[in-house]
Amino acid sequence: MDRRAFARFLSQSRAWLDQSMAVQAATPTEQRRGQLLAGFLFLLCIPLAALIVNNVFYFVAAPSAQYGWFLVSDFLSLTVFIWLWRLNRKGNTRLVGHAVVLMVTLGVSFLYSPDNPSNGLLMYVLPIFIASFVIEPKASFWVFGVSLATYTLAMYLVNRFLDYDVTGMTALFVVAVITWAASDRLENAVTQIEILNTDLQARNQDLQASYETTLEGWSHALDLRDKETEGHTLRVTELTLRIARAMGFSAEQLVHVRRGALLHDIGKMGVPDQILHKPGPLTEEEWRSMKRHPELAYELLSPIQYLAPALDIPHYHHEKWDGSGYPVGLKGEEIPLAARIFAVVDVYDALTSDRPYRASWSKEQTLAYIRSEAGRHFDPAVVDIFLKELSE
Question: Which residues of 115-150 are buried (b: 16+ CB within 10 A; e: fewer)?
Fold first, then answer.
């Protein structure tokens, strides 16, 4: 197996293990307990599966009723553990935890060395530990009580308390106390962390909402300054997001696309009113001033760290596929994809809107123009998706 195949195997194994440990729980605490229980059941199934293979080998080599019974009991146990695992995945962690603890406790008491149950005292530690961390911290005490009762009954049935291990049971009680204390402290610490995380997420959501409101306020201020393009920003933002989704942008990328589209003309804040609102054609000098607005947008927004991933559209939305655009003169795929998408949407909205110096174009005229500019002004692949989306 080469390195890539091994890495792929590890990745697939990890994904399968994560899926196996997934639990449908109402709270993070219950989910965490369910994951611990799933891990415990998984560990129980491994030696049981190995035992089944071993007994199959011996049964095939020397068929006997004893090995047949071993196989039946092993398969039955494995079936029960798988059923409990599936029940735990559905969120019944507390019920499954009680069942597993009782099964292990009773198994240790009556199946482990029936002639001398004291040999199994150490095995009681496992259900105490599992109960405390999977069910609730104080569960270690009732499991100790069950262990004490079953051990006492087993010793009575075997030798009438002849070898009753008082020291061992006392040590087991100490283990229950230590396990309870450790689990309780861990539970409190994890609960505090979950509270802090919830509070942090709420604050982060409030902060994000404030950011978005601020950006929308900026874009609205631009629309108010330039009455000719009022409503343009929201229209191009929505259509740009639609095309970006169709081209496979992730949810995180769409957030930055939205911010960039809202702020695409923020650089015009630095363009004088007499140029921005001039009713007639611009002079060469005025046109140079107007063409600086993408650079002004970059200078204005780049110091704001959370807007850094959103700069592609404000900075490059006037670049052209053939390299004749501005402010840098990027060509082809050198232009960020978000800016290539926005360029098509921006021209479409501008041409289908009324301006003082011209009437709006029809949708058919505009689409024909965009189609003719594919490979010159626009990315042909973006044009294809754009035309498809608008036709639907």
Answer: eebbebbebbbbbbbbbbbbbbbebbbbbbebbeeb
278 tagged catalytic: no
Please give the pLDDT value at position 108.
64
- Dihedral of CA atoms 83, 87, 88, 90 in degrees, nearest 10, equals 140
**Full-model pTM:** 0.55
Span 18-49, pLDDT tens digits: 666 667 766 777 777 888 788 878 877 887 88
Q: Quick one: pLDDT at residue 6?
A: 64
90, 138, 227, 268: the active-site residue:
268
Contact predicate 333/306, CB 8 Å = no
Ranges under pLDDT 50 in the chain:
114
Give the integer Cα–Cα distance in Å for 279 and 281. 7
Rounded-to-10 torsion of CA 370, 376, 380, 383: -20
